Amino acid sequence: MTRYYLSQLEIEGFRGINNEGDPLSIHFKPDAVNSIFAPNAQGKSSIFEALCYAIKGHIPKLSMLPEVDQAGDYYCNRFHSAGQAHISIVLQPEDSSPNVVILLVRDKYGNRKVSSPSGHPNPEEILRSLDNDLCLLDQRTFLRFVEESPLNRGRAFSALLGIGRLSEVRQALAMLANTRTMNSDLGIADLVNQLVAVRDRAKSAVAGIAQPFEKLTGMDSPDPFDPSKVVQESTASLKGIDLIQSHFMSDTIATVDFDKVRETVRSAEQSDKYDKLTEIVKAIAALSALAPNSGEKEEQESIALAVAAREQALAATRGPLFKELYEILDQILKSDEWDEANKCPACKSALAEPLAPQIQKQLDEYSKVLAASSEISDLWATATWGARLRRLVHAPQIGADDPQVQLFARLDTNFKSGEVSVENLQLLLSLHSDLDNKRVGSLTALEAQKLELQKELPPSLVAITEKITYAEEIRKELAELEAAFSEVALLEKKLAHRQQWCRFITYASQAFGDAEVALSTQKTIAIESQYKDMYSTITNNPDVVPKLQKSAESEELFLLLEKFYGLANLRATTLLAESYRNALAISIFLSSALNHVSPARFVVLDDVTSSFDAGHQYALMELIRTKIARPGNTNGPQVIILSHDGLLEKYFDRLSSTTVWHHQRIQGLSPIGAVLAQAQQPNRLRQSAETFLNAGKTLQAEPLIRQYLEFKLLEIIRKVDIPVPLDFSIRDDKQMVQNCIDAIGTAVGLQTKAGTIILDSTQLANVSSTHVPALVSNWISHYSTGVASSLSPYTLRGVLDSVDKLADCFKYDCSCSGSTHRRYYKDLSSKCCGC
Amino acid sequence: MDKFEFSPDLSPEGNLELFLAHLDDVDKEMSELLRQNFNSLFPLPEPGQRRNTRRQAFNSKIALALDTEAPTEEPSE
Prior knowledge:
The complex is a heterodimer. Helix content of chain A is 58%, strand content 11%. By secondary structure, chain A is an alpha/beta fold. The longest helix of chain A is centred in the middle third of the chain and has 81 residues, at 459-539. Chain A is elongated. Chain B is mostly helical. In chain B, helix 1 packs antiparallel against helix 2 (28-38). The model of chain B has no long low-confidence stretch (mean pLDDT 86). The chains are: A alpha/beta, B mainly alpha. At the A-B interface, helix 6, helix 7 and helix 18 of A face helix 1, helix 2 and helix 3 of B.
């Protein structure tokens, strides 16, 4: 496995970094701790985000935003004229093979293109190989670890251990395996309901065959029901009639043309009366098939009991709005967001007893209503009288009127959902009774008409006509039964397949969860002594020893204190100050990073120290410098620290003169103009400022001028060893230039009064009377009050020249190397050499 | 079915592949379906509406795929 250091990063048109035509370029040293300081809103986070986007393909912070924020539109800088982002990364292999240069372009439509100007065949694969939790750590992960609920802390902890990806997958699988949402998303309940309805149709068809079969064959329907036997017996019955026997020599009742059979009978008795008789017999057969079933009364009584129980349960509830309220309260009370059992989350009233049981009691009442509704729905789905009523409503022989049809449609919907009142039931029973009476009345009238006709027609032909009609009725029901059977088969297959998925994903979620807990516990144990040592080093407090306790059932993680000033096993979140919790988080992360081997041999820490106490910050930086990062730890990673902390910058500045530390400062006009890395590019900084001034763009030039001034003044202070006050770097950052000038002025004044000043008289005069006053009057006071833009570009160019001349006041001509060059004094009272 | 365990020596992605291979043994057909749609779940949004939308979209794809493919016999555990 090839491992890579981060050697260089160039950014243009990405997030807060515009730098159109002049990319921000940052160099990193593999054998030094790299620090980057930037005041707030100067593009520091954009640097971290550029690395995230390059390596992960997205910026997690933006991916978490709601859809409405359209985060995808905010990757590219909004002020870049092409709306296109370029990120170039140079990776230095640890085995001394040639550097790999990777260029990423994101266009304004969100398309990502990765290429390798250095000719690597698969740059995207390299980037993917760098993606791990222990490569990029941001403040957000930290805050989650120290502040949030045990669940979120557990998830953040996974990231600190380097298995955040597994935590994310675990969450995804748990989300999919939620029984309620799974049933709803996959339509399991709908499929079950559809199956019930179709089976009911099949049952109804079987019931519809019983009477015509008995009339045709004189036998009961086969038990168990057998469609082929029904066809066989019915056909045999008609085949036994001489007049129509020829039609059933090769056909059955399922295939025969009944019109032709009837034509044969009609030919035997040429009469209109026969046609009339046929119609009447058909109508009688249809109405007979709608006769009541034996168990209807009991079914109606069962449903009446369920309806009454539902009404009773409903009376104990307070309506749908309160139901919503109780459900939300229940959710809040069960969530990690609320931990005050005796306080109402809605009105924050203090209660004598815990609220959760009371809410549960209310919800139980609603559950009783749901249970009763469900029972009604089930009873209705299997009720034979319901199926018969449906057929009565739609039978043309009954002639139900429009209001009756509409009433049934409305009530049928209610009964299917189970949301039925006693009044609904009474209406339905009344409709059932009315239509049944109509059926009986129609049947009686038709029987009378049939008798009249029978008197006028040969009795044998009447009986044959009846049998043909019954056979036709049987065929119709058999067709319905066949359609229902094939639909049942289809639905059962669909349901079985979806249930197979449900079982699979439930297993996957459980197995993954168990394995993740085991791995997390194993990893925690492996680094336990190391993170405890680091924690002790950072906090320098042996009386407080932390301990992590991972839940065996969930992702929850509890922060405990093994020791706390002589006490044992206490909750850390309630006792430990924020800085101590941060110290624990970084200790866990760094221990994991040290034990992790991946293609990324660099670790980028973005603003992770912002909530640390100053003492802890320094201890942490010293720990990183001496024990964690290269070159202090030769086997350690290249560490890159991004910070906006002014105090830390002082520390960075001090170390940047050594070979083990490489410090840079980022400043500029984010997000509109250019942002530059100061330490690397003072000349470029000056050139950029001049370019803006030449174009009359004073607004864009001002931050660069300020940055250049700071650089030059701090250079004088460092080179000539000028003392600065303790709070030098933490005063208002807009006053940094003034702070530098004050420090220089004070030191020069002191040395002059002491008579030890090394500056010659011209230099001294220029410092005290020309350049400093010019800078102060023309720039500083204006800039710090925010009205510098009133100055002309010519004046501002004068400011740039002035600071160079000021720096020259602290230099002398040195000829030690043979040729003469300007060199800084050693300090305000001596030169570096004998020149 | 043996209890599944991650390997401490593998990267998260390596462990994920190990898990998916284990699921192949549990139910090849369903495992294949999960693999085909797996990446559409990520990056996982914060819990809330967006996560619900992501889940519903995922399950819709699964339901469609399940309906278009005939079920195969589940291996017994």
